[in-house]
Design a protein that fits this description.
Layout lengths: L1 E7 L12 E7 L7 E10 L3 H4 L17 E11 L9 E7 L3 E5 L4 E2 L15 H14 L6 E5 L6 H10 L3 E6 L2 H10 L4 E4 L5 H8 L4 E6 L3 H8 L2 E9 L3 H4 L12 H5 L3 E4 L9 H13 L7 E5 L4 H9 L6 E5 L5
Parallel strand pairs: 8-9, 8-11, 9-10, 11-12, 12-13, 14-15
Antiparallel strand pairs: 1-2, 3-4, 3-6, 3-15, 4-5, 5-7
Length: about 325
């Protein structure tokens, strides 16, 4: 019996393309003592996937020939460990493949939530990243103004909705009139600036008449530079990602550092979601309450088929997703 997997055929030197990946048929893995055989149900597609191809980050660099890493929701097919049983739903650091084996102690047993996709979106990486970054670093107060870039994306949409639930004014930045309409009409943001229309500084200043207290940055580059110029004194900048910089050989950064940080006494801090894992239960309780109250709408963008994972990532980098992007490899049990 064979198993499909997708490897990185070659490392991109510029824009990521389908030719950088290869779909392979390989032998079905067999779990050794203390391991589990997992069937992939859903794979998370994140901008960070692209950054891993550029070198070591918070994880080892992805090299040519490696199966493409991912975070996945799986069910246990076979277990040689007392920790897990067939049929258990787990989260695992995995790869783009139909089946994988993993040490049982390195996967996390999950509750059976319907649909399982919520374990990747609102109760998973996206929702927890939004909650931890905004609450722990942004520390918003009711009445303050929050700006979030990539506002129609997986994390940005939840950041804005959490901000509204806390009583803040929330302004998004997104690409194109359709996405901006989605951000205000569906997600309830107070305003949204279309960066593709140009004049971002002027439009953002008009949308934030009292300045910006918290900026949740998902894109870096020119948008970060522009937003820093509108921050209030002692504002907080939450550095979550830099999607504008991942798919290029000529990355750019804000030119107003460190001057604007000093003059405005800003606090600028980066993080990854695992930094606050100790508070995951608190995040889940809050997110569940807001969903139940109708204050958070769950938005998901699910692409069907393992073979479509490369295009799903390429599309994400081009901004064609609305909500949390993931690839469905197998059916929910």
């Amino acid at each position: 019996m064979t198993n499909r997997q997708i490897v990185v055929a070659s490392l991109p030197q510029g824009t990521l393309e389908p030719a950088h990946f290869e779909l392979q048929d390989v032998p079905m893995p067999t779990p050794q003592d203390g391991e589990v055989l997992l069937r992939t149900i859903l794979m998370s597609i994140d901008a960070a996937n692209r950054s891993w191809m550029q070198g070591a980050t918070y994880r080892d660099a992805v090299k040519a020939g490696d199966p493409m890493p991912t975070y996945a929701i799986c069910d246990v097919v076979k277990s040689t460990s007392p920790r897990l049983s067939p049929g258990d739903i787990v989260a695992a650091e995995s790869v783009w493949a139909d089946h994988v084996t993993r040490p049982a102690h390195k996967v996390q047993k999950l509750p059976k939530v319907e649909p399982l996709s919520h374990l990747l979106s609102v109760y998973g990486i996206a929702g927890k990243t939004a909650f931890h970054g905004l609450m722990q670093i942004g520390q918003p107060l009711a009445g303050e103004t929050i700006v979030v870039s990539a506002a129609a994306g997986s994390v940005g949409g939840y950041v804005g909705q959490i901000g509204k639930a806390l009583g803040c004014r929330v302004v998004g930045i997104a690409g194109g009139p359709d996405k901006c309409a989605f951000v205000t009409d569906a997600l309830g943001f107070d305003a949204c600036v279309d960066y593709r229309a140009g004049g971002v500084f002027k439009a953002l200043r008009a949308a934030c008449p009292d300045g910006i207290d918290v900026y949740f940055d998902n894109v870096g580059g020119d948008i970060l530079e522009t937003t820093l110029g509108l921050m209030n004194e002692r504002g907080r900048v939450v550095c979550c990602g830099a999607i504008s910089q991942y798919d290029t050989t000529n990355p750019t950064g804000p030119r107003n550092l460190p001057g604007v940080v000093v003059v405005k006494r800003l606090r600028m801090e980066g993080f990854i979601v695992m930094d606050f894992a100790r508070d995951d239960a608190k995040a889940t309780r809050a997110l569940q309450a807001w969903v139940a109250q109708g204050k958070i709408k769950v938005t998901e963008d699910i692409v069907d088929g393992l073979e479509n994972a490369p295009q799903a990532l390429i599309g994400l980098l081009n901004g064609d997703n609305t909500g949390k992007r993931m690839v469905r490899v197998g059916a929910d049990p």
